[in-house]
Design brief:
By secondary structure, the chain is an alpha+beta fold. The protein has 15 helices and 16 strands. The strands form 3 sheets. An 8-stranded mixed beta sheet has the order 6-10-11-16-15-14-13-12, sandwiched between helices. A 5-stranded mixed barrel has the order 1-2-3-5-4. The longest helix is centred in the N-terminal third of the chain and has 23 residues. 36% of the residues are buried. Bound molecules: 4-amino-1,4-dioxobutan-2-aminium adenosine-5'-monophosphate and magnesium ion (MG).
Length: 477
């Protein structure tokens, strides 16, 4: 018989019909009550074993972590806490799990411990919930753009360009690391490498995305991106997923509006479609909050934070205005910031971003028009000669969740910036050329998918919202 998913059984009218459930044992109580989870939902189904109906040797093998196939009758539950339960007629152990060795016990484990057994943490309520929400958000991303006539473009993972001009890239090579070919100056000769040149894993699909925006109009990429920066924080990964829409004929204001609409859509989608998982995560986050000092606690719970984002416009604010607010803020005057704000032009740290969002405005903030010297070369230069049409969306508990800009569509301006910043003009030839052939005003942004998942699940470490996190010193699994 074909198995039915638990998610479906839990909303099925119980009439004693025969069904088959396959899943993993969470707990087995009193030699009678098996809580089974199959990952389709956060909720378990309770299977009840009649006394003396199973061999003693089988009963012994029903242990936490074991995989079972259970056939039985779906009946209204006699116990409280669930509407239906399964009266077991048949039980087969598909995979044993030695209770002495299985690392997951039916109790709360620390997230740090679970990271060390990431290949099993998917069996916990928390990771089940997070990954189901992650799936829903990926689906919603495509739904959002498809509904608006955007085209999904698959930009390359291996590239020859450094899109952000930041240089923190992973090299891709097939050369022998022990004994690479060398040129006449003794330098590694990448002409002999697989692609006949230096290549790396992409840090962003933006540059290639732009070439498609100036052909298909409105496009987006959604793929893995890689950064070899040595950032050991709760907000950085070396491999993360990014959604990058790119739109012809948009200016910075259109870009800001799309970013707000997009984030509000995603938050609403989660509220509408991930109710049970969010309720679980909301409770989980509240328990975690309770162990923090009062002043560090969130004023709103997880679900209320999502609702708040859906219902409120984001605060738009220029970088210059933000600096004024920060300069005169209490933590700056009392020297509470680690990095004090004293002059225009400095880059904002996450403590500043979070002050603006969490303490000053108490809502998401979009900062725009940043000093050109702290932003990427491709951003459109404003008439003041000092700023570029950049925008960052800042979220409570996260800081920067989106970074984007209007792009410099004027060839001369772009070339000048490439020179000023000492970027390799030769490698960027096609990107520059795009400005020679039918250039157009355009804009776009990048949403860090894991930072979104942090926000939507209330998790606090980015290593816990991706199945297998990659960060300095760690590529296990
Ligand atoms: O601000 P970033 O570096 O912007 C870009 O890459 C642009 N090319 C985007 C564009 O305009 N198309 O990165 C965009 C977002 C950040 O706001 C952040 O959410 C996320 O990507 N991000 C990271 N997420 C996890 N780990 C990291 N190391 C990240 N670096 C950036
Ligand atoms: Mg950024």
């Amino acid at each position: 018989m074909k198995r039915t998913k638990i998610k479906q059984l839990l909303v099925t009218e119980p009439t004693g019909q025969t069904v088959v459930v396959k899943g993993w044992v969470r707990t087995f109580r009193s030699n009678r009550f098996i809580a089974i989870n199959d990952g389709s939902t956060i909720n378990n189904i309770q299977a009840v074993v009649e006394l003396n109906s199973l061999e003693e040797s089988t009963l012994k093998r029903i242990t936490t972590g074991a995989c079972v196939a259970v056939g039985g009758e779906l009946i209204a539950s006699l116990g409280s806490g669930q509407a239906v339960e399964l009266k077991v007629n048949q039980l087969e152990i598909l995979g044993d799990s030695d209770p002495e060795k299985f690392p997951l016990q039916p109790k709360k484990h620390s997230l740090e411990f679970l990271r060390e057994i990431a290949y099993l943490r998917s069996r916990t309520n928390t990771f089940g919930a997070v990954m189901r929400v992650r799936h829903a958000m990926a689906f919603a991303v495509h739904q959002f753009y498809n509904d608006r006539g955007f085209f999904y473009v698959h930009t390359p993972v291996i590239t020859g360009s450094d899109a952000e001009g930041a240089g923190a890239m992973f090299r891709v090579t097939t050369l022998d690391a022990e004994n690479p070919p060398r040129d006449e100056n003794g330098k590694v000769n990448y002409k002999e490498d697989f692609f006949g040149r230096e290549t790396n894993l992409t840090v962003s699909g933006q540059l290639e995305g732009e070439t498609y925006a100036l052909a298909l109009g409105e496009v987006y990429t959604f793929g893995p991106t890689f950064r070899a920066e040595n950032s050991n924080t709760t907000r950085h990964l070396a491999e993360f997923w990014m959604i990058e829409p790119e739109m012809a004929f948009y200016d910075i204001n259109d870009n800001m509006q799309l970013a707000q609409d997009f984030l509000q859509y995603l938050a609403k989608y989660a509220l509408d479609n991930c109710k049970e998982d969010l309720e679980f995560l909301d409770k989980r986050a509240a328990e975690e909050e309770a162990s923090k000092p009062q002043e560090q606690r969130n004023e709103l719970g997880l679900i209320d934070r999502l609702k708040f984002v859906v219902e409120n416009d984001f605060q738009r604010l220029s970088y210059t205005e933000a600096i004024d607010i920060l300069k005169n803020s209490t933590p700056n005057k009392k020297k509470k910031f680690q990095y004090l704000i004293d002059e225009w032009g400095v880059d904002l740290q996450s403590e500043h971003e979070r002050f603006l969002v969490e303490k000053h405005f108490k809502k998401p903030v979009i900062l725009y028009n940043y000093p050109k010297d702290i932003k990427a070369f491709y951003m459109r230069q404003n008439d003041d000669g000092k700023t570029v049409a950049a925008m960052d969306v800042l979220f409570p508990g996260i800081g920067e969740i989106i970074g984007g800009s209007q792009r410099e569509e004027r060839y001369e301006n772009l070339l000048k910036r490439v020179h000023e910043m000492n970027l390799p003009e030769k490698e960027l030839w096609w990107y520059l050329d795009l400005r020679k052939f039918g250039s157009a005003p355009h804009a776009g942004f990048g949403l860090g998918f894991e930072r979104l998942i942090l926000f939507v699940t209330g998790m606090t470490n980015i290593r816990d919202v991706i199945p297998y996190p990659r960060y300095p010193g760690n590529a296990e699994f």
